[in-house]
Amino acid sequence: MREPATQPWIGIIANPVSARDIRRVVGNAGALPLAERVNLLLRLMAALAACGITEVRMMPDREGLRALLLRELSAHSGQRLPQLCWLPMAVSATVQDSFHAAQQMQEAGAAAIVVLGGDGTHRAVARHCGAVPIVGLSTGTNNAWPELREPTILGLALGLYASGKIPDEQALVWNKWLDITFTDADGVHRQDIALVDAAITDERFIGARSLWSGGALSQLFLSFAEPQAVGMSAIGGLLQPIGRREAGGLQLTFGPGGCQLQAPLAPGVIGDVAIARWQRIEHGQQHRPLLRQGVIAIDGERELTFGPQLSVTIALRERAFRSLDITACLHYAAAAQLLRHGA
Amino acid sequence: MNTREDSNPGSLLSAKQLLNVYRRMRTIRHFEERLHVDFSRGDIPGFVHLYAGEEATAVGIISHLGDGDRIASTHRGHGHCIAKGVDVIAMMKEIYGKTGGACNGKGGSMHIADLSKGMMGANGILGAGAPLICGAALAAKFRGKGEIGITFAGDGAANQGTFLESLNLAAVWSLPVVFVIENNGYAEATSRSYATAVDSYVDRAAGFGLPGVTVDGTDFFAVYETAGELIRRAREGGGPSLLECKMVRFYGHFEGDAQTYRGHDELEDIRANQDCLKLFRAQVEQSGMVDSAAFDEVDREVAALIEQAVQEAKAAPEPNAADLLSDVYISY
Q: Are B151 and B129 in contact (CB under 8 A)?
């Protein structure tokens, strides 16, 4: 059995602004008010406290989540909750905050990092969390990677794991990602990752960021393809499913000559896409976009324009980062009677 | 390739259209920067509140509108007026308080209106545009031509009862309205976090059953795509919605504001990193659609236009005392 740290603590990175983009109007995607995000955090913390976790450290924000959480905590002074500390960091209100917070949590020895957000937030944390496992809680829009979970249950599983009652080999699973490398005309490299999907479009400008239509798609690279997902992963999943724990990924080329597929491109948006061909991809193989100019969308968000002066390569990486398997943890807890008292 | 749908319409704009967008944004910027100088010299009566830094929001939204669509503006209304096509020379004369002004020199900066362009007026009362646009939208709904209304409010004005009541009214009557919150982080000198219980304005929309979207108001293409969908929805009978544009203002709340509430280096930082004109120009030049020389030519045209506007405004006569009681009431 793994020995827990003397006082194991949990990092929390909660995106205060996920689920507020254009998909609210093009597909009636759900909204998650700040007050509800606070409720999720309080339920998570209550379960962590029940498992003996005494401290959580959170990424600060200036979008109102911290202010509302502090207000609520002052009203919950009688409730048993872990002590809440805020990471000492400047807030930029950009994705850089998630990068810095994950880095700090890794360096300071977090037992795990809970992420509240969509695929994009989880991707930001995965880039910088190193060997610290991620515990994902979906609060975004079309999330393929994090699951919709009751935070109380997630908190119980995490609390048992962090306090050393569940061994790593039972609790943790490996995840894949896509390495994306940009090389400019001077040979300077820049690295990024996609947890689930990297899409190439023929657009000239990034626009509203969220990818909600198939009209401009040229190619799609997937680390896993699940037919029960919504968004880009579903396109691959409805053609040739590849599980998130299975080796390999998928690459699709859009256009005539293949088949038409009806797919859930975003919440509330069912569209037809023409797919010319598709193929499995394997760990380490380097792939280049067919287009010389366009936009690359990562995990559902149009992120970057590229042109002939910028070379882009995409490669699948197996065993890229670890996450907590909530279901496995709770099955182990039941079998090992971790939550049973008395006879 | 699959059939292109409506997504990212900014990517489909021609070079000429992109230059027109830039011309509108540059005209607003130059207009405001000239007012900043002329006001400090004491040339301009009354108050002025400058829109510089926020141009991508006004132009990104209003580019989707025609003259039959109505907008209700704010005390910081010059950008909305220019984006809606109000004559720049008439605006300058109005701000100088001269005859030939958009309101014959009697309204000044905070009351510029031009109903022929669907510009219902800047407004010195915070949150007052929202109920006005509900009336205009109700009329548009009865006319049945697919016209819509847009009201702008600052993040401070969005706390006013009039604004919140209008969200309710528009939802109940399913009015073709988009409520735009121009969130520049400060209600005059009060930061958002100090005076607003829940920082998300989208959350308020949800409370009234409306869809709400937050967008980077300094990115023309993000605003243009998002606003296009909200406006299309309103035209097609989908009802009201709310758009929060996060943005920055380059000057104080009003001209003469010492801005002691700003952070150290805040202004330098936002001018360097969040200037919507620079961001637009960089994106378009990188795309290869328009070259730098074409943008520079627009800069020269706009500079000449603003100089002409100022000279004509200075040369125009002041209103006569006999005109004082005319135009008090107007029939539409």
A: yes
Low-confidence stretches of chain A (pLDDT < 70) are: 1-5, 343
Q: Is residue B63 pLDDT above 80, yes or no?
A: yes
Does residue B331 surpass a pLDDT of 60?
Answer: yes
Nearest to B71 by CA among B137, B166, B22: B137
ipTM: 0.92
- pLDDT tens profile B251-279: 999 998 989 888 889 999 999 999 999 99
Residue by residue, DSSP assigns B38-71 as HHHTT-S-S-----TT-HHHHHHHHTT--TTSEE
Return the DSSP state at B2.
P
| Encoded amino acid at A130, one letter | G
Question: What would the two tokens of residue A74 be?
Answer: 């002052």
Q: How far apart are CA B95 and CA B102, in angstroms?
A: 9
Please, are residues A37 and A149 in contact by the beta-carbon 8 Å criterion? Answer: no
Query: What is the value of pTM for the model shown?
Result: 0.94
How far is B264 from chain A, CA to nearest CA, in Å? Answer: 14
What the block records as the tokens of A24 is 């609210």
Taking phi over 0 as left and psi of -120 to 50 as alpha, with beta for the rest, A205 belongs to beta
Strand, coil or helix: A88: coil
* Nearest Cα residue in chain B from A211: B7
Answer for the pair A110, A80: CB distance below 8 angstroms, yes or no: no
CA dihedral B20, B25, B29, B34 (to 10 degrees): 40
Which residues of chain A have a CB within 8 Å of the CB of B5?
213-215, 271
A270 touches B: beta carbon within 8 Å:
no
**pLDDT tens digits, one per residue of B159-184:** 999 999 999 999 999 999 999 999 99
Tell me if A22 and B5 make a contact (CB, 8 A cut-off): no
* DSSP states of A256-286: EEEEEEEEEEETTEEEEEEEEEEEEE-BT--
Instruction: Give how far B16 is from chain A: nearest CA, Å.
Output: 15
Give every CB contact of residue A200 below 8 A, 6+ residues apart in sequence: A217, A218, A219, A220, A289, A290, A291, A294, A295, A296, A297
pLDDT digits (tens, 9 = 90+) for B67-89: 999 999 999 999 999 999 999 99
What pLDDT band is residue B185 in, cutting at 50, 70 and 90?
confident
Q: Coil, strand, or helix at residue A221?
A: strand
Round to whole Å and give the CA distance between B223 and B221: 5
Give the pLDDT score at A239. Answer: 96
Q: Which residue(s) pair with A324 in the sheet?
A: A172
Q: What's the rounded Cα separation, in Å, for the pair B91 and B112? A: 7
Task: Choose the mutation target among A24, A261, A273, A309 for the interface with B, i.e. most B CBs under 10 Å.
Answer: A24
Q: Mean per-residue pLDDT for B290-294?
A: 98
Nearest Cβ partner for B1 among A35, A254, A272:
A254
Tokens of A35: 């007050």
Counting residues of chain B whose pLDDT is more than 90, the rounded percentage is 81
If you count residue pairs, one on A and one on B, with CB atoms under 8 Å apart, how many are there? 126
Whether A209 has its CB under 8 Å from any CB of chain B: the answer is yes
Chain A hits for B212, Cβ within 8 Å: 20, 24, 31
